[in-house]
Amino acid sequence: MLTIAALTFKEVVRRRILLVTVALAVIFLSLYGTAVHYGYQDMTSSHYAGSMNALIAPMFLSIGLYFGSFIVAFLAVMAAVGAISGEIENGIINAIIPSPVRRLDIVLGKFIGYALMLSVFASLFYVAVLLIVQLNTGLSAPVRAGAVGLFCLQPVILLALTMFGTTFLSTLANGIGSFMLYAVGVVGGMMEQIGYLAKSQVLVDIGVFSSLLMPADSVYRKIVYGLMSTPDVSLSNMMLGPFGSFSEPSVWMLVYTGFYIVFFLAMASLIFSRKDI
Amino acid sequence: MIIETDNLTKMYGNKVGCSEICLTVGEGQIFGFLGPNGAGKSTLVKTLVGLLFPTSGSARILGKPLGDRSVRRKTGFLPENFRYQDWLTGAELLSFHGSLHGMNRAEKTRRIPEVLELVGLGEKGRQRVGSYSKGMQQRVGLACALLPDPELIFLDEPTSALDPLGRREVREIMLELRKRGKTIFLNSHLLSEVEMVCDRVAFINKGCIVAEGSLDNLLANTVEVDMRVEGISQKMLGELSILSSSLKAEGNLIRLCLRDIADTPVLAEVVVNNGGKLFSLNTRQNSLEDLFIELVKEGGHQVC
Question: Which of A19, B23, B240, B301 shows a CA-CA span of 20 to 30 A to A171?
C-alpha cells in the first residue's frame, strides 16, 4: 500500500500536476491579494460603507475560501479521475495486479498518495488566504488546526467519490459524474443559505438533501461559520449570503462525512477486487 | 506440477473466453501456448495471473489456488499489451516492481543492474521509460518479470516488438532460465520461436484446447505421405484411410496424413496385399505451422 502511495505522490510531482496547480494557485492568490488590498482600502474609505465596514473583510475572506475550496475540489477530481480506469485503459495496471499486492492496497495506496498531496496543497492555500486577509484588513481570524483540517477534508471527500467512480466508470464518465455531484453540493449549499434568508424551508431542505449527496459544501459552511464566530465578526454569517453560513453544520455532519468517505472507499475496493481487467 | 488447471472456464457474458481448460505444466519446462487470434490464449494467461476471475473450474499454481499472494511472489508476468509508467526511469520502474514483490533495498540494488544487463538495457536504465522505443519497453517489461527471480514466468508474446536479434536474445534468456530450473509459460504467435525453445505445447481454438503434448509427439502424428501406386482399389483406399487422418487419391497418386509414423511400413503392405504396385513412397514430417493450420482449419476436438 505504501509503495503505491509513494508512487502516486511521485507521479503527481513528476508529471508536474502539483507544479502546474501550485503555479496557478500562486497566480490566483496574487490576484486575490491585490484585490483584497485595494478593494478593502477603497471600500472602507468610501462614504457608502458606513455601518457595512465590518462586513468587508469577512466577505473577502469567505470569497477567498469559497473559490479556494473550488480549486482544491477541482484538483482532487482531476488528479484521481483516471487513477484506476486510466491505468486499465492504457494497460499499466496489467503489470501491477499480478504482483503480490492486494487490489485493496492499490485503491488505498492511490487514495493515500493523492490525499497527502491534496492536504499539503489545501493547507498551504488556506493559510495563504487567511494571511492575505489578516495582513491587508487586520481581521482577527487566527489559523486553527481544526479549520485547516476541515479545509483539507473537502477535497478528500471528492477524492473518495472519484476513487469509487474510477473503479467502474470510464475516465471521462467519472470526471463528469464527480463534477456534477460536486455542483449539486455547491448549488444545494447556496439554496440552503438563500432559504434561510428567504425563510423558505423547501430551499433549506434541498440544501440538507444535497449535503447528504455531497457533504463537501457543508464542510465549507462549517469552516466559515467557525471563522465568523469570533466576537468582532459574529454577525457576518448572516450578511454573507451564499458565501456565509446561517447555521453551523453539526458534528454529526462530520461523522456522516467520515462514513461517507469510508463507504465510498470500501465500495471502490470491493468493486475493484472483483473486477475483470 | 507447476501449473494445473481443471476445467477452467472464463465466459464474457455469453461469449466464451476459454472453456474447460485442463492443462498441466511440469517444473523446468518451457510450455508453448498456441492458437489463432481471439482463440482464448490471453484469456487463459490473464486468468492464471489474476487479472481475470474464472467463471468455473479451478487451477493451482505452484501447488496453491489462484490468487494466492505467496505464489505471486514467485511468479513473473510480461503482459501482451505492455505499458509502463513513462515518467519513471527504467531503474525506478524496476525498483517499484521490486517493492511490490517485497524486495528490500539491498536485494534491489543487487538485482536491478543484473536484470537490466540481462535484457540488454544496461546503462539505458537511467533513461525515462517514455523515451524508450517499443522494443526497449518490451525489454524493460521482461526485466520487471524476471526481477524477483521467479520460479514461474508467464510471457505473453514476449518478442512481438523485437527485431530478429532481440528475438534471439530473448530465446537465449528463456533457455538459460530453463537451465536454472525455471518454468516458462510462453504465449506466442511465432511458431518458429516455439519450435526452437518449447518442450511441450498446447493448441487452443475457439476457447478449447484442441491438442496438447510434447513437440516430438505432436509432430510425429502429422507425417504426410505421397505414394505412386498402380492398381488402386476402393478396398485398398479403405484400409489406408484407417491408418490416416486424411487421404486423397488422384490418378496414381495417393496423398495421406499418417496418424503414427510407425505405421509407414504398413502402408506398403496394404498396397501389395491389395494387388497394387508401389513405385514410390515419400514421407514428409509436417512443421508446427502445418499442424497449427490443420488444427485451426479443422477446429480440432477438445482434449480434456
Answer: A19
